[in-house]
Amino acid sequence: MKISVRQVDGVTIVDCSGRITLGEGSVTLRDTVREILAKGQKKILLNLADVNYIDSSGIGELVSAFTTTKNQNGELKLLKLTKKVNDLLQITKLYTVFDVKDDETAAVKSFK
Amino acid sequence: MGITEQRVSYTLDSTLQTVDSAEEKATRIATELGFSEDEVMQISMAVREAAVNAVLHGNAYAPDKKVTLSFERTPENLVITVCDQGAGMDLARIPNPLAPENLLKTSGRGIFLMRSFMDVVEIRPSHTGTELKMIKHVHGPSAGGKEASQ
Questions:
Q1: Which domain does A71 fall in, by range?
Q2: A56·B103 Cβ contact <8 A
Q3: Please, are residues B83 and B130 in contact by the beta-carbon 8 Å criterion?
Q4: Which sign, positive or negative, has the C-alpha torsion B16, B61, A61, A93?
Q5: Is residue B78 a contact partner of residue B70, using CB atoms and an 8 Å limit?
Q6: Mutate to test the interface with B, among A19, A55, A88 (most CBs of B within 10 A)
Q7: Is the pLDDT of residue B139 over 50?
Q8: In this structure, what CATH number is given to the domain that contains residue A7?
Q9: Weakest-pLDDT range from A20-24, A41-45, B10-14
Q10: Does the pLDDT of residue A25 top 50, yes or no?
Q11: Do the Cβ atoms of B89 and B130 come closer than 8 Å?
Q12: Residue B60 located in a structural domain
């Protein structure tokens, strides 16, 4: 899994690509979100457009990132889900938990 | 590894590499059997989750414990069996991941996903640990035209 981080209008956008699975992918995502929060940046947009595979551990990491951010009075939203990831979030009912956006500009503006 | 005309089995270490290897094998075999792209994804993910259970929760990465993975093709089904040498699991203690109070838990979705993606999932204690059997029905002439091969 590869991750790059950029700032747009006060929102930290995390561009993820590859797989979020048990092992390296999940750990990479966890460490990245923790580093962002440690810097005091609490508006996080996870761009999953290029994430082609996620397993239950990866789903767990998304939930962990969401709750960790929320517990620090931040907001974490998801951007551009692939069909596979979208289907998984539907099956697990997590689509109702996450704020999922399709358009980056609109997503950035949606943060408080 | 052992192989017969319609059945292939592997004995694997209790490592993370086994999880990836099991997924790759499932993808290859399901593809060779002619399952659709979506079905291949479902089968490979179910096998990955089963392997995670066996390696982490069953064998707890113990180097002296093995995971046995087998694929069997019958006229109607692909039957996949994953066995570990762990202490076994109490299914009654696995919470429903769709319950509102469990939605934000970071684990506990593996068996749920297997049941979502496969037609049958049976988990039972074996003489050496836990045996997890999953079945995917073959639908129509597009699936099952070829036998599993090594």
A1: 2-103
A2: no
A3: yes
A4: positive
A5: no
A6: A55
A7: yes
A8: 3.30.750.24
A9: A20-24
A10: yes
A11: yes
A12: yes
Structure tokens at B99: 């319950």
Retrieve residue A48's tokens.
């999953």
- Tell me whether residues A93 and B98 touch, CB distance under 8 A: yes
Whether residue B73 lies inside any domain: the answer is yes
- List the structure tokens of A38: 């440690």
According to the model, what pLDDT value does residue A112 have? 75
- The domain that contains B131 carries what CATH number? 3.30.565.10
Tokens (6 digits) for B23: 């997924």
Decide if B144 is inside a domain: no
Interface confidence (ipTM) of the complex: 0.90
Paired sense of beta strands A43-54 and A11-20, if any = parallel
How many structural domains does chain B have? 1
- List chain B residues with CB under 8 Å of A56: 49, 52, 107, 109-110, 113
B134, B114 in Cβ contact below 8 A? yes
Q: Which of A8, A67, A57 is nearest to A33 (CA)?
A: A67
Q: Which of B103, B106, B113 to mutate to test the interface with A (most CBs of A within 10 A)?
A: B106
Residues with Cβ within 8 Å of residue B114, at least 6 apart in sequence: B46, B49, B50, B121, B132, B134
pLDDT (average), residues A17-36: 91
Total count of domains within chain A: 1
8 Å CB contact between B133 and B69: no
List Cα–Cα distances, A82 to A3, A4, A20, A49, B137, in angstroms: 16, 18, 13, 6, 26
| Within a domain: A111 | no
